[in-house]
Specification:
de novo design (two linked rop proteins), 6 helices, alpha+beta, 237 residues
Length: 237
């Protein structure tokens, strides 16, 4: 059977003498693996369509235990991201994290649209440190496991200015419900995490976080992902 879709190249591994094994986040079939025969040859017909982070149209043979790439053409190469080291680094970290968290053959357009939206805006985002925090929050929302930031995750009580964060319980915890091992955080950081989750990429610069707040936010979100998704640590930049 021959299938066609569009997808992001998340990973490419050398295979045999001149082939590649690709990991692709596709719009229609979720995360899939494709073998691209001859892709490493200088005269490969695939050209730059298989470069990392590129959004390409892909035509492939779908057999029971093998997906073999037939054709590939570039839809968007995100050149502005790839020419900027810090933006490229954040994009690669995001692709790596997504690859670790998403299982194969589980189509979910929400995940695809998250990545497409992020890459589409990344070249114009001004504050990349905030974007690195926001991408974790927004990815978790796309995966359906965003931390609870509006009410107590342990007792569903209203939150006051005395706040803790509990990865195990799923988010913010009030003074009445917090336990040993929960992390205390300021009302300001709690508010800004909620705002980062809701703001569009082009409005992130409305917020400011100190270096200490950014460091703490990354630690808490990494612990949250590690608990709920068994995820590896994602570098902050």
């Amino acid at each position: 059977m021959i299938l066609k879709t569009i997808g992001f190249i998340l990973r490419a591994i050398k295979f045999r003498e001149s082939d590649l094994i690709l990991t692709v986040l596709s719009r229609d079939y979720g995360k899939i693996s494709l073998i691209a025969k001859g892709a490493r040859r200088t005269e490969s017909k695939f050209g730059a369509a298989l470069d990392l982070l590129t959004l390409s149209e892909l035509v492939f043979y779908d057999a029971e235990n093998l997906k073999l790439l037939k054709e590939a053409s570039i839809i968007e190469d995100y050149r502005a991201i790839k020419s900027d080291y810090e933006r490229l680094t954040l994009a690669l970290h995001t692709a790596h994290l997504l690859n670790q968290l998403v299982e194969e053959h589980h189509p979910d357009r929400t995940i695809f649209e998250f990545l497409q939206g992020f890459f589409g805006e990344l070249s114009s985002v001004k504050n990349l440190e905030l974007a690195a925090v926001a991408v974790k929050l927004k990815l978790m929302r796309a995966l359906g496991i965003a931390p609870r930031l509006s009410s107590c995750a342990r007792g569903r009580h209203r939150l006051t200015d005395e706040l803790w964060f509990s990865p195990q319980s799923g988010g913010l915890v009030c003074a009445a419900c917090h336990q040993a091992g929960d992390t205390r955080l300021s009302p300001r950081l709690a508010h800004n995490l909620k705002m980062l989750l809701g703001l569009s990429w082009d409005k992130l610069d409305r917020l400011t976080l100190s270096e200490d707040e950014i460091t703490l936010a990354h630690r808490l979100l990494d612990e949250f992902m590690g608990f709920h998704l068994k995820a590896p640590h994602m570098p902050s930049k």
